[in-house]
Amino acid sequence: MAFYERQTKGFVNIDPLQTGGRLSEDAKRVLVEWGDGYSVCDFCTGSLFEIKTPPIRTFVSKLLPEFLGTEYSRITNGAREAKYAVMHALRGKGEEWIVMDGNAHYSSYVAAERAGYRIALVENSEYPEFRVTPERFAEVLDDVAKRGNVRLALITYPDGNYGNLPDVRKIARICESYDVPLLVNGAYAVGRMPVSLKELGGNFIVGSGHKSMASAGPVGVLGFNEDFADRITRKSERYRNKEIEFLGCTARGVAVMTLMASFDYVARRVKRWDEEVEKARWFSRKMEDLGMIQLGEKPHNHDLMFFEAPPLYEISKKAKDGRFFLYRELKKRRIHGIKPGLTRHFKLSTYGLTRDELRYVLDSFEEIINKYSG
């Protein structure tokens, strides 16, 4: 049926939500093979993480923790569910605080609200870099610690707006000095770039399979160490093999199977991260040659970038389609990823795209500017 067909099939995709989640060829085959309802659950004897065939047990107990640089791991229904599981597991009684960076994804904030925390934000440095510094993190943590009980801290690495990579190592040491556990939200890091909690520091790390690990979603991953294992994996009193924080079982079927099918592919591609960074920096320079302004850290260290676009914004004031002209012009050229109505500023990702594809995107931007400026 026509409404099931994706209109952007075959487009050059620069959407940060999708560039790291494109399925590997193995995952595409698994998608069909395991697409029937609760297919994985056919092999479950009570605990999803203990299924030996397909090899979920090996993946969760060995391969994924090694990849994350942790001692334990769990698969979740998404990064936000993984964050909430940690927040809820650590929540005590009475008024408790969580300190998180001001660039945090809205789901981090909502998860903290749901878990009943009071929230203190570490504001960024504002225009044009929007950086979250360890020094500012320490100031906020110290201030809140003097006023109340800080149960947890969260740092977004990188953030989903500007693609900034804060100094997690320093922030982890600061949190350790206050005896506050640190949760690293690596939804745009795990699966795109080399990430190890053992090297970064902190106590928990979260990833997104459908954003950055070439898998169908929603699916997330959570890594943690021995210190908090009992709290994260505590079991139901009545259903002894069901872990409370994960509501017994989480992602199953195609979500977990595509995650596993793409794992070798993902493990290989993170080794080419330096190439991805250089490509992103090259693209940023070319965009600025066209009059755009890349915000966030410079030189940039991630594929996700945020651009201010004065030439396109000026065109939108006069164009027939107004602020929707850019989306429609890009669609004509089979380019997808910038949301309808955005011209003044927008974000995009270069991850996994070839230089030729990116040259085509750059040429398209130049062509559009020239078309309306003539």
From TrEMBL:
<comment type="subunit">
    <text>Homodimer. Interacts with SepRS.</text>
</comment>
<feature type="modified residue" description="N6-(pyridoxal phosphate)lysine">
    <location>
        <position position="211"/>
    </location>
</feature>
<comment type="function">
    <text>Converts O-phospho-L-seryl-tRNA(Cys) (Sep-tRNA(Cys)) to L-cysteinyl-tRNA(Cys) (Cys-tRNA(Cys)).</text>
</comment>
<keyword id="KW-0663">Pyridoxal phosphate</keyword>
<dbReference type="InterPro" id="IPR008829">
    <property type="entry name" value="SepSecS/SepCysS"/>
</dbReference>
<feature type="binding site">
    <location>
        <position position="185"/>
    </location>
    <ligand>
        <name>pyridoxal 5'-phosphate</name>
    </ligand>
</feature>
<dbReference type="Pfam" id="PF05889">
    <property type="entry name" value="SepSecS"/>
</dbReference>
<feature type="binding site">
    <location>
        <begin position="79"/>
        <end position="80"/>
    </location>
    <ligand>
        <name>pyridoxal 5'-phosphate</name>
    </ligand>
</feature>
<dbReference type="InterPro" id="IPR015424">
    <property type="entry name" value="PyrdxlP-dep_Trfase"/>
</dbReference>
<dbReference type="InterPro" id="IPR015422">
    <property type="entry name" value="PyrdxlP-dep_Trfase_small"/>
</dbReference>
<feature type="binding site">
    <location>
        <begin position="208"/>
        <end position="210"/>
    </location>
    <ligand>
        <name>pyridoxal 5'-phosphate</name>
    </ligand>
</feature>
<dbReference type="InterPro" id="IPR013375">
    <property type="entry name" value="Sep_Cys-tRNA_synth_arc"/>
</dbReference>
<keyword id="KW-0808">Transferase</keyword>
<comment type="similarity">
    <text>Belongs to the SepCysS family.</text>
</comment>
<dbReference type="GO" id="GO:0006412">
    <property type="term" value="P:translation"/>
</dbReference>
<keyword id="KW-0648">Protein biosynthesis</keyword>
<dbReference type="GO" id="GO:0043766">
    <property type="term" value="F:Sep-tRNA:Cys-tRNA synthase activity"/>
</dbReference>
<protein>
    <recommendedName>
        <fullName>O-phospho-L-seryl-tRNA:Cys-tRNA synthase</fullName>
        <ecNumber>2.5.1.73</ecNumber>
    </recommendedName>
</protein>
<dbReference type="InterPro" id="IPR015421">
    <property type="entry name" value="PyrdxlP-dep_Trfase_major"/>
</dbReference>
